[in-house]
Specification:
This protein is about 40% helix and about 20% strand. The chain has about 220 residues and is an alpha/beta fold. The strands form three sheets. Strands 2-1-3-4-5 form a five-stranded parallel β-sheet, sandwiched between helices. Helix 2 runs parallel beside helix 3. This is Transcriptional regulatory protein CutR.
Length: about 220
């Protein structure tokens, strides 16, 4: 899952991004509304965590722009105000969910994951395919009943492949969904991560390389 965090309190923004990355999400961070619009114009995000009171371009205007674009991106709006009228106003302009500050990080994570599931065809909470069982909420993976310990990026790559339900996923798509925008597009990190993932999942191999196209399970 790829997430954009838009928050002008830099310490909070960076803390949220760090926490979401530990949950195997690819996260980009910006600190004002103008920068958010620039990122949205060039990147596809599953979820945007959007502070309402932003400098340069207000969070409401960022939200309206996302709605105007007609993309499947979901918006979780943050605000220091917990008034019902503010929550209603945020939802009326196109936000999908609303979370007042201060918030528990566990709740933020749960809401981001819930919104992320709504950007694609509905799938069961626990993904199962080829003897693999992956639980995104618990961050657990089992292969034929054996628990497999994965690093965050390995988990993210496996989740993308599992969600594709047998379709081929290109290296570029994996890079976009599992890494943030600071990753060198010419790096071999996808190939290396897939190799490590194959080794950890064990025999027989379940990740198939489709020459010239990508990978599938």
């Amino acid at each position: 899952m790829r997430v954009l965090v838009v928050e002008d309190e830099q310490l909070l923004a960076d803390a949220v991004a760090t926490g979401l990355r530990r949950e195997a999400m690819a996260v980009d961070v910006v600190y004002d509304g103008a920068a958010a619009l620039e990122r949205i114009a060039v990147n596809d995000y599953d979820v945007i965590v959007l502070d309402r009171d932003l400098p340069l371009v207000h969070g409401d205007d960022v939200c309206r722009k996302v709605v105007e674009l007609g993309v499947p991106t979901r918006i979780l709006m943050l605000t220091a105000s917990g008034d019902v009228s503010d929550r209603v106003a945020g939802l009326e302009i196109g936000a999908d969910d609303y979370l007042p500050k201060p918030f528990a990080f566990s709740e933020l994570t749960a809401r981001v994951r819930a919104l992320g599931r709504r950007t694609t065809v509905a799938l069961p909470p626990v993904l199962e395919r080829a003897g693999i069982k992956l639980d995104p909420n618990r961050r657990e993976v089992f292969r034929d009943g054996r628990e497999v310990q994965l690093a965050p990026k390995e988990f993210a790559v496996l989740e993308v492949l599992m969600r594709s339900e047998g379709a081929v996923v290109s290296a570029e798509q994996l890079l976009e969904k599992a890494w943030d925008e600071n990753t060198d597009p010419f790096t071999n990190v996808v190939r290396v991560t897939v190799m490590t993932l194959r080794r950890k999942l064990g025999e027989p191999p379940v990740i198939v390389t489709v020459p010239g196209s990508g990978y599938r399970i």
